[in-house]
Amino acid sequence: xxxxxxxxxxxxxxxxxxxxxxxxxxxxxxVHLSIARLAVAAGVSEPTVNRFCRSLGCRGFPDFKLRxxxxxxxxxxxxxxxxxxxxxxxxLADKMFETAMSRINRARTxxxxxxxxGVVGEILDCRxxxxxxxxxxxxxxxxxxxxxxxxxxxxxxxxxxxxxxLTANTASSDDLFLFLxxxxxxxxxxxxxxxxxxxxxxxxxxxxxGSPLARACHRTIDLVLDSSSATMAGFTNRLVxxxxxxxxxxxxxxxxxxxxxxxxxxxxxxxxxxx
Length: 275
Fold this sequence. Notes:
The chain is α/β, with parallel strands linked by helices. It has 14 helices and 5 strands. It folds into 2 domains: 2-75, Arc Repressor Mutant, subunit A; 113-263, Rossmann fold.
């Protein structure tokens, strides 16, 4: 709610802006004020305070106070907000940041730890990790290669549908495919997954559960990705995928370092014989 008040400043009348600036100056104090005391503090009338509240989509001052109190009680609470053609650059920035944080929080709370552990284990157990991305996820796939530098596996990235299909058709049981698809419905990826499965390769998708790609793969990291055409869905989906890839890359790197450390500390066969 605080971000919403800040974003509304340029659209308010002078008197309504005075109310907004009074609240932004000290939200923790303002939430305890009556409408009369807030009006006095802002130097406006009580009807002006009510107009300000309604301009934010609230039913009135009590509703505004409730929403403000909820925001202050949970500062990490963010809302998905739509863009408007009349938004200023600052309003666009506020809305995009808040929407991104909302979807990141939602993904974080719904991402089972066992899913991550299972994927990390499979990556460490494979001979070759093949990362597939098409269209909006091509850049994610290319960037993901750098995340696994130093890992004890070979990493291959393909962002061309023809090459993806050819490679999938020559896969082996030692290969692990990681498909990045924010809607889970990209036909060439589904086809590549089907071909790789016929070659006994292991398949993981970062895609919505229940999508054609998810059904074609053995394991899915379901991030409750927005598969609709909702505002900024593509941007926020890619952002969430990037974060998960970063987590997977760092987890694999950490596991690799731990393995090397224990291997270094483990006594050799001759040392055990002497002991």
